[in-house]
Amino acid sequence: MRAEIQNVVDETKQAITLLRRHLDWDQAVRRLDWLNNKAEDPTLWNDASEAQKLMRERQQLDDGINGVRQLEQQLNDNVELIEMGEEEGDEGVVKEAEDALKGLKTEAARRQVEAMLSGEADSNDTYLEVHSGAGGTESQDWANMLLRMYTRWAERQRFKVELLEVHDGEEAGIKSATLLVKGQNAYGWLKTESGVHRLVRISPYDSNARRHTSFSSIWVYPVIDDSIQIDINESDCRIDTYRSSGAGGQHVNTTDSAVRITHIPSGIVVQCQQERSQHKNRAKAWDMLRARMYEAELKKREDAANAEAASKSDIGWGHQIRSYVLQPYQLVKDLRTGVASTAPGDVLDGELNEFMEAALAHRISGKPDAVVDDID
C-alpha cells in the first residue's frame, strides 16, 4: 500500500477511535439496547413529552453507533480490496478503493465535528435572520443572495425550511428575512454563521459597471422546547401589527396579520408574517422571542470571545466574519479560520460545510481567532 494511502488509513482509524471515545462506546451500546426495549413498551407514550425525549436520544445514539460501524466496515473492506488488487495487479480496483478511502477520511472528519455538537441547544431546530446593511439596493440584493445560500445549504442537508417573514427592498432584494430551519443539529451547524458577511462584485445596478462592497448580517438562535422555561414580562414588550409583504394572496396583503414584538429592556425585536392569521403569527412571534432570550442567556455562558452577537455589531467594515469576492477574481475567505474557496458560485449555492466544520473546530478549541488578512 502506498505511503499516502497508509496515512489516510491511519488518520481514519484515529478518527474512529476518537468517535468511539466520545460516544463512551460500551455505555452507549448498552443505553441504545435499553432504549430499543423501552420503545416496545406500550405504556411509554402515556407521557408524550418524556417519550419524545427518549426517542430523540435513541435516534441520536443509533445514528452515532451505526455511523461508526459503517466507517469501520467500509475501511476494512477497502483495505482488503487494495490488497487483493495489488496481488492481482488490477490497478483499476486499487484506484477505486483508494478513492473510497479518501472519501471515508472526509466522512470520518465530518462525523468528528458533528459528534462535538453537544452543546445545550445544538440538536435543536433554529431560526436564522438575515439583515441588509447600509447601501440600499446593493446590500438588499446581497441579503437576498445570503437568504438563498442558507436555504440551499439546508436543502442539501435535507433539513426542512420555512420562511417566517420577509421585508422586500424598494427596488430589489430584501431588507430582512427570517428562516426556520428544522433538522437534527440545525442550530449546532448554523450557530457559527452569526456575523457580518461582505460581498465584493461589479454591481449589476451600476450603469458604469463599478465594483461595489456590500454588507449583510446573519443572526442564528435556537428553537426552544417546552422543557426550557423562559419567563418574559408582557408589560416589558410592545406588540405591533402591520400588513404582510411579499407573496401570500389578497388576504395577506390587505389585513394587518403580521406581528412584531419588541422586548424593550433588551431591545430584541422579532416579527412573523408566515401565517394568514394574526393570532397564529402572534403565537409564533412569542416563541421566537423566547428563543432569542434563551440564545442571549447561552451567549453569556460562552467564551467571551464569542459573546457578541452579530446583529448588535455594525454591519460594515471591521466586523465581517467572511468575505465573498466575485470580481476581479473569485474567492471566499473566512476571516476567523482562514478557510478559503476559489469557487464562490458553489459556496453561494449552499456548499458551506467546509467553512462550518472549520468554525466549529475553532470554537471548540477555545483558541482566539486566527490573524487572517481580509481580501480586496
Protein architecture, described:
With 376 residues, the protein is of the alpha+beta class. The longest helix is centred in the first third of the chain and has 41 residues, at 48-88. An eight-stranded mixed beta sheet has the order 2-3-1-5-4-9-10-11. It has a three-stranded antiparallel beta sheet with strand order 6-7-8, covered by helices on one side. It has helices at 3-23, 25-39, 48-88, 91-115, 137-156, 186-190, 249-254, 278-301, 344-348, 353-365, and strands spanning 126-132, 160-168, 174-182, 195-202, 211-222, 237-242, 258-263, 268-272, 320-325, 331-334, 340-341. The protein has ten helices and eleven strands. Helix content is 47%, strand content 20%.
Secondary-structure map:
Blueprint: H1 3-23, H2 25-39, H3 48-88, H4 91-115, E1 126-132, H5 137-156, E2 160-168, E3 174-182, H6 186-190, E4 195-202, E5 211-222, E6 237-242, H7 249-254, E7 258-263, E8 268-272, H8 278-301, E9 320-325, E10 331-334, E11 340-341, H9 344-348, H10 353-365
Parallel strand pairs: 4-9
Antiparallel strand pairs: 1-3, 1-5, 2-3, 4-5, 6-7, 7-8, 9-10, 10-11
Helix pairs in contact: 1-2, 1-3, 1-4, 2-3, 3-4
